[in-house]
Amino acid sequence: MSETTRPSEGPHSAATPSGSTSDAADMTHGLVDREMNEMVPVPAGPGMTASAAALTARKTARRETFRLLMRKPSFVIGNVIVIFWVVCAIGGKAIAPYDPQENFSDFLHAPPGGDFLLGTDRLGRDVLSRIITGARDVLIVAPVSAVIGVTLGTILGLVMGFYRGAVDDILSRVVEAFLSLPIAVVGLLALVVLGPSNTTVLTVVGLLFAPIVARTVRAAVLAERELDYVQAARLQGESSFYIMFREILPNITGPIIVELTVRIGYAIFTVATLSFLGVGVQPPSPDWGLAISDEYSFIISGYWWPVVYPSLAIASLVIAVNLIADALQGVLSR
Prior knowledge:
Helices cover 64% and strands 3% of the residues. The chain is built from twelve helices and two strands; from the N terminus they run H-E-E-H-H-H-H-H-H-H-H-H-H-H.
């Protein structure tokens, strides 16, 4: 019966076959490219060990992955949009035409055009300047909350999938209970109790995302835990912690990266929703969701631009992140 041995970060993951050690030093074949799911033969030069050859194989796989991603228009377009908003977040007031908090009392709800390219809001503040500077809060709170959620969810998913049995049953019921509740409602209640602030928002959103990520990671771990390289680690007496984080985790990074990208998109929308409801980012921040909340009641009077342009900013960023996630999933799942 033929067996496939998967390389990992552990010291036992690359074993030298019995026989001549000089032959093994000349050529190391059959290193598995985990990201591309294909066999990548890597010639070992004089003095190159099996671990060095494995490292070379991983570098080659990363370069090939990046090359394939750059050939996908969705990945390129998504990154261009995200980079644009990152530049706005970093530049902030330095590239904004006006101070986002400056009130031009003679130009209340001035229409787009002239000195104010995107018009002004009800207090006479330049909409374009507030959109540019508002990108900073969005691109800090949303990614950090996504990282918190993915980190906690990955740990929880590893434990659930690896131990199975009673541990998996109990934690799975807890995760399912959380997943049955609407994220926005739970976040709203939590922020009402704890009080709104950037730190509270990113913590609450991250905790709400953790059960969703845990379910995805658990499924990936279940597919890995019975494979040969995990059984070999158990036979060598490695601890459960070592097997989970040094053997299994490196082999499920693809789904985790995709999940992180998807969660960032959801976090942007969730943070904007909480700000719109008044429990997210607080005034006088030029946050996009907060701007929509302040101005949406004036649409009926014909003042649409303070609402439409921040909405388009949110939509463009969410769509860009989703384009990147789709491209990553298409390449890493090959």
